[in-house]
Specification:
182 residues, mainly alpha, 75% helix, elongated
């Protein structure tokens, strides 16, 4: 396992693609969590309405459906997205620290990062068009952190991710150019 990890680190010549993966991953996962939570709320609200008859009222099925509906409407999913966000930041920092790259590539890396920023703007617009639908207003109230990170601040978040990666990647002291620290 250690040999495989060392081999992968030696073959990795840049960290740019990791930023692309993280930006797309955060947007897609945020949208998937949001849509699944909305579908759960709709499903369990409908089930609870169907079970709210004299025949099934105050039964175990009604109580379980109410519990699932409360869990779907909780802010747990919002904090789960925040945890994924911080996990991605840590992963970007560790991979940038583990990679040795020549400082000559700083400007090329910066120019390529503009494409990542453009992708972040497109994904932010996709999130805003998804979340502005009137059908999602009650679900959006349960996702303030996700809405903040993926909404109008997503280009700023992408810029911060790029800057953190560039500072860690190009700010290391000179030394062995063949491998990273890890």
């Amino acid at each position: 396992m250690k040999k495989l990890l060392n081999n992968l680190l030696k073959k990795k010549k840049g960290d740019f693609i990791s930023i692309v993966y993280v930006v797309v991953f955060l947007a897609v996962i945020g949208m998937v969590i949001f849509i699944v939570a909305h579908l759960n709320i709709e499903l369990f609200t409908g089930l609870q309405a169907e079970l709210n008859t004299a025949e099934y009222n105050d039964t175990e099925a009604y109580a379980v459906t109410a519990g699932f509906k409360d869990f779907s409407m909780s802010r747990v999913w919002d904090y789960a997205f925040l945890g994924l966000f911080f996990g991605c930041l840590i992963a970007i920092g560790l991979s940038a620290y583990a990679i040795r790259i020549s400082p000559l590539f700083y400007w090329i890396y910066g120019l390529l990062s503009l494409f990542v920023l453009a992708a972040g703007v497109v994904l932010s617009n996709a999130w805003q068009s998804l979340s502005s639908d009137p059908e999602f207003t009650t679900t959006l109230a349960n996702f303030p952190i996700t809405n903040t990170l993926l909404g109008s601040y997503f280009p700023l978040v992408v810029t911060v991710i790029i800057i953190i990666a560039m500072v860690i990647l190009f700010g290391k002291p000179s030394g062995d150019q063949e491998g990273g620290y890890i």
